[in-house]
Structure formats: structure tokens, C-alpha cells
């Protein structure tokens, strides 16, 4: 599909998603109807390798598509964004693993938890995987799952950190996603017990972080040479743009005719404070968008040269992603606090946006203070305080 058309299709289906946003929250997972719309529009294939029927689009286009979808339904936008991340990651696996996923079904979807919360033991022909992984967004709609785990030797020592690809039927989804933000993402915990994983479906993450992925060279573009951690952080950010934009639009739409309580019936749209609030909210959102697309420019510049992004640039990219989603939260918080008592209603678009943006800002990869500390250490010539770079 033409990727420019994909952005337009995303914008076209966003109103249908918006109409079901509250239903999605009540369902606690992405609705089947929403997943079907995304599939029919070809939007799950945005970062899927062209070798397997995907668009193999740019990270700029990923951001634009996810922003458009999240502008309709934040939870659906989140699920799409992380599924883009997982189809991109799939392009780094061995060719055999990619064929396992996409060979029979080019529309196969992948959910994942990449943090090494599980444990794996090496066997003669692969690994045995055990673990419990919370926050597996979109797991109800996935045919395949990717889980992070420490590889443990016979002495009980961790000798590697890897991600493991398994069919979804080998995992048990727990009904435990009751959340105040991103409530409609179905980010349930998933349990795996003694699942055998063949060696070709295992990807060592230390090598990936240093640009050594077995599948990258299979593809026609530099997309799969993107620095892994900056890219994985970026994939979490597109929904924040769409959610904050929807909140701004909703605030502006409800202003005409609205008066402010405990005043001489002043019209909110005519009050100077409203002009300041709207302008500041819009500027924060615009700045966030600029920052994220600048991150893409940096990631792509190193990828196109097939060079590993230096550690200090990776640290900055993570910091910029955290800063951008914080700007989106600040933008919406301004408007939420200016919405009066009516803004507290569960049906209010702005309060839903505020809840979802708080959830995004609480993701470990995007935690502001953690990223500030890491970035500050780097600026001062100290070693980073995390291996996840």
C-alpha cells in the first residue's frame, strides 16, 4: 500500500475509533472492531519488512500514523504503536523466525514485553522459557508473543539477555488489567511455563543494542539498522501526540457558549486567561512533535550510514522521548484544569486524555527523572546508570 495513503486512511478511520473510545475503556482491551479496522487499512504493516508484505515505512510515517489513530482512541493508538515496534523488532530476527511469523500469514500480529522478566535454560536444540510478564499490551489480538528473559546456565548464573518468540497459544493471559490510564489497551500479564523455544527464534539483546542483529541485512532499507533502544523508546511516543491533540481539539470545541462559574457570567472563550492556556497547550504539543521528529532524523541518519549510534546520542534520544511525552501531558493538564467540574465526568474526552498521558509518562522507558539522571551523568562525563541504551 502507498504509505502516504496509509496516513490518510488512519485519519479517515479515527472518528470511528473516537466513537468507541469509552466502550474500549469499559472493555479493558482494544476492541475487535478496532483491530479489524486497522488490519483492513493495512496499518499493522507499517514497519513490517517488505520482504514479508509490509510497508517498511520510515519512522516519521510511523509517528504520523500512530498520532492519527490515537487522535481517535488513545488505547487503540497505543496498541498500534507498540505492535509497530514488535513488527520492526521481528525484522531483526533470523530469516527462519521471520518466515515462521509472516510466511503463512502476512497479517500476523505480535505482542511483547521486552524487559528480561523471565528465565530461559539452554537445551540441546533450543531453550526452555519460564516467566511472568505484566503489561503485555494488545495480547488478546496477537498470534505471536515476544518475551525478554535472562539466559541461565547450569550454575544458575545469567549469561545472556535475550528475547524469545513463541506462538500465543503457548501462553496464559491473566485477567488483571484494571488501570486508571490506557485502560483500554488490554495490557494484561502473561504467564509462560516450560515452553520450548527453538534457537532460531531467540535474539540476543546486547548484540542488538550494538547493531548486531542477524536479520537486518535481509531488508531493502536502513530501517532495521535503527539504534534499538532509541527506536523502542520512540515507538511509545506517537500515541501521546494524538491523545494531546484530541484533548486540545475537544477543549476548543466546547468553548463557544461556555460561561465560567462564580463570575459575572463571563464567556470563557473571551477571557485572556483562556487565550494564554490554549496557546501554551498548543505550543507544548507542537514542540513535542518537533522533538520526536528530530529524534527520528538522528536515528535515521546513523542507520542510513550503517553506523552504530554513539552511546551519548542514544542517551539523549531517550531523554528527548521522555521530554516530548511530558510536554504532551503538560499540554493536556493545562486544559484539564481549565475545564471546570464538568471535566471530571468519565465521558469527558479531556479527562480520559489526561489519564492516558499520565500512564504513558509512567512507562519505565519514559520516566522523566530516570532519563534526566542518565542524561546528566553523560553530560558530566560519568558512565550511564543503565544498560538499556
Number of strands: 7
Overall geometry comes to globular
Structure class: alpha+beta
Oligomer: single chain
Elements, N to C (H/E): HHHHHHEEEEEEEHHHHHHH
Distance between the termini: 33 Å
CATH level-4 homologous superfamily of the largest domain: Butyryl-CoA Dehydrogenase, subunit A, domain 3
| Helix count from the secondary structure assignment | 13
Looking at CATH, which topology of the largest domain would you report? Butyryl-CoA Dehydrogenase, subunit A, domain 3
Mean of all residue-level pLDDT scores: 97
Radius of gyration: 21 Å
Q: In CATH's first tier, which class of the largest domain applies?
A: Mainly Alpha
* CATH architecture term of the largest domain: Up-down Bundle
Query: What strand line-up does the widest sheet have?
Result: 5-6-2-1-3-4-7
Amino acid at each position: 500500500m502507498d504509505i502516504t495513503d496509509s496516513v490518510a486512511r488512519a485519519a479517515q478511520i479515527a472518528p470511528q475509533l473516537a466513537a468507541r473510545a469509552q466502550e474500549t475503556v469499559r472493555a479493558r482491551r482494544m476492541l475487535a472492531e478496532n483491530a479489524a479496522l486497522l488490519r483492513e487499512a493495512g496499518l499493522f504493516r507499517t514497519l513490517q519488512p517488505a520482504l514479508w508484505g509490509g510497508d517498511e515505512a520510515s519512522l516519521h510515517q510511523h509517528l504520523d500514523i500512530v498520532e492519527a489513530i490515537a487522535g481517535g482512541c488513545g488505547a487503540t493508538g497505543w496498541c498500534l504503536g507498540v505492535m509497530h515496534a514488535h513488527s520492526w523488532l521481528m525484522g531483526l530476527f533470523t530469516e527462519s523466525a521471520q518466515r515462521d511469523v509472516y510466511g503463512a500469514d502476512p497479517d500476523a500480529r505480535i505482542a511483547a514485553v521486552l524487559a528480561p522478566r523471565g528465565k530461559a535454560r539452554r537445551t540441546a536444540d533450543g531453550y526452555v522459557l519460564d516467566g511472568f510478564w505484566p503489561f503485555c499490551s494488545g495480547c488478546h489480538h496477537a498470534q505471536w508473543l515476544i518475551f525478554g528473559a535472562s539466559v541461565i546456565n547450569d550454575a544458575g548464573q545469567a549469561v545472556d539477555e535475550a528475547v524469545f518468540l513463541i506462538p500465543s497459544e503457548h501462553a496464559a493471559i491473566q485477567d488483571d488489567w484494571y488501570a486508571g490510564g490506557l485502560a483500554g489497551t488490554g495490557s494484561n500479564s502473561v504467564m509462560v511455563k516450560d515452553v520450548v523455544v527453538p534457537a532460531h527464534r531467540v535474539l540476543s539483546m546486547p548484540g542488538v543494542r550494538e547493531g548486531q542483529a542477524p536479520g537486518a541485512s535481509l531488508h531493502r532499507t536502513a530501517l532495521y539498522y535503527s539504534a534499538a533502544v532509541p527506536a523502542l523508546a520512540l515507538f511509545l511516543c506517537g500515541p501521546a501526540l494524538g491523545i494531546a491533540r484530541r484533548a486540545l481539539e475537544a477543549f476548543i470545541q466546547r468553548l463557544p457558549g461556555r460561561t465560567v462559574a462564580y463570575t459575572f457570567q463571563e464567556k470563557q472563550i473571551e477571557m485572556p486567561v483562556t487565550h494564554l492556556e490554549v496557546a501554551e497547550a498548543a505550543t507544548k504539543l507542537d514542540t513535542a512533535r518537533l522533538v520526536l521528529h528530530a529524534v527520528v532524523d538522528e536515528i535515521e541518519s546513523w542507520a542510513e550510514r550503517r553506523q552504530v549510534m554513539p552511546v551519548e546520542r542514544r542517551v539523549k534520544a531517550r531523554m528527548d522521548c521522555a521530554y516530548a511525552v511530558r510536554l504532551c501531558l503538560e499540554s493536556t493538564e493545562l486544559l484539564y484544569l481549565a475545564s471546570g467540574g464538568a471535566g471530571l465526568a468519565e465521558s469527558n474526552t479531556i479527562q480520559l486524555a489526561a489519564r492516558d498521558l499520565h500512564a504513558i509518562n509512567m512507562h519505565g522507558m519514559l520516566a522523566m527523572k530516570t532519563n534526566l539522571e542518565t542524561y546528566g551523568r553523560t553530560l558530566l562525563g560519568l558512565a550511564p546508570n543503565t544498560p538499556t541504551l
